[in-house]
Amino acid sequence: MSGVSLRLEIDRWRRHLVTVAEATPGIVPVAKGNGYGFGLDRLAAEAQRLGADTIAVGLPSEVAEVRDRFAGDVVIMMPWRPDDDLARSLLADPRLITTVSRVEDLATIGRLAADLARPPRVIVEVLTSMQRHGIRTDDLTAVGDHLAAITLEGWTIHLPLLDRGRYLEAERLARAALAAAPGTLWISHLPAVDATTLAKQLGGAGQDPIPLRLRVGTRLWLGDPASLSTAATVLDVHPVRRGDRAGYRQRKIIRDGWLVIMAGGTAHGIGMEAPTSASSSRQRLVALAQGGLQASGRALSPYTIAGAKRWFLEPPHMQASLVLLPGSATPPAIGDVVPVELRLTTALVDRVVEV
């Protein structure tokens, strides 16, 4: 028996990490949220193994999960706010780089800096077409009024994923930022080839390229799907007959078969997928059909048993799921491991196994 678990299996994964890191100048691995399914501590250790000098986390609360496994600097990508006590305390940490997205917050940090042993390290976010966080280009000159009290580590530009117009937007915003104050550019979602071109273009003819750091998360950790697979342990198997009832909600069994109890539930992200963008007519029809089935109490599980995905009996439990298998199929044995399809950015696995 392989253990009661939902597991992520990795094969040739580290080769992919090295390939991406070597092709990405100034790479800053991103480790945030659930750690892309791997966990933050593991990603911190992998970033250390890659030789990265800086790692990026999403929230101040995630710093503690990476700093003991990673020896370099840590960037907090969520913009600083004055009412966050943990974020305020981290200003004094010499390894921490804080993102600031409002001029008034930069002013507040400047005042707090008077009580610190050293100036806080800060990167200033420029508002992009994502319209999420950042200072508008018209207001960037005001940043210069607050630089004396901080160490400006550069400017951060978080671009949208769409290719169209992305390079031109990066160039326009970078020029506006560098006109306000010189500094390193920290950019998300710009291909390495474009970033290299941009750094040279901004540096000018006969000049050194502008220093540039590329934050990479999904493309680094999940960019080679063939090197990753997820699987779950069969916990129990029970024969059931039409008319039997089972589960918390005592759902009626509609035909003879098997009730397979699988490792994995809502605590692991089973049945709690993130929304996807239905950009085509077919995708919208599929989403509509799935919604109709779920409204009627039927939902297809992510578990593949005896060669096909099988239906949930009822919504997943916290750490286990009840899955129906028709009587015509050969049931798995207790302890068998079967494939399960997971969105790793919303999943929490019990184990990561190298195969």
How would you describe the overall organization of this protein?
The protein starts with 5 loop residues before the first strand and ends with a strand. The protein has helices at 13-23, 40-50, 63-67, 85-90, 103-112, 166-180, 192-203, 218-221, 281-295, and strands spanning 6-10, 27-29, 54-57, 73-76, 96-100, 121-126, 151-158, 185-188, 212-216, 228-240, 245-246, 251-252, 257-263, 300-305, 308-311, 320-326, 337-339, 351-354. The chain is built from nine helices and 18 strands. The protein is α/β, with parallel strands linked by helices.
Itemize the secondary structure elements and their pairings.
Elements: E1 6-10, H1 13-23, E2 27-29, H2 40-50, E3 54-57, H3 63-67, E4 73-76, H4 85-90, E5 96-100, H5 103-112, E6 121-126, E7 151-158, H6 166-180, E8 185-188, H7 192-203, E9 212-216, H8 218-221, E10 228-240, E11 245-246, E12 251-252, E13 257-263, H9 281-295, E14 300-305, E15 308-311, E16 320-326, E17 337-339, E18 351-354
- Succession of helices and strands: EHEHEHEHEHEEHEHEHEEEEHEEEEE
Strand order within the widest beta sheet: 2-9-8-7-6-5-4-3
Number of helices: 9
Total beta strand runs: 18
The CATH fourth-level homologous superfamily of the largest domain: Alanine racemase
How many domains make up the coordinates? 2
- Any guess at the CATH architecture of the largest domain? Alpha-Beta Barrel
Which structural class do the helices and strands define?
alpha/beta
Estimate the global geometry from the Cα principal axes.
elongated
Name of the CATH class of the largest domain: Alpha Beta
Roughly what fraction of the amino acids lie in strands?
A: 25-35%
Largest sheet: 8 strands, parallel
Helix percentage: 25-40%
- CATH fold label of the largest domain: TIM Barrel
- The overall average pLDDT, rounded, is 92
Radius of gyration: 25 Å
Report how far apart the termini are.
16 Å
Low-confidence stretches: 283-296
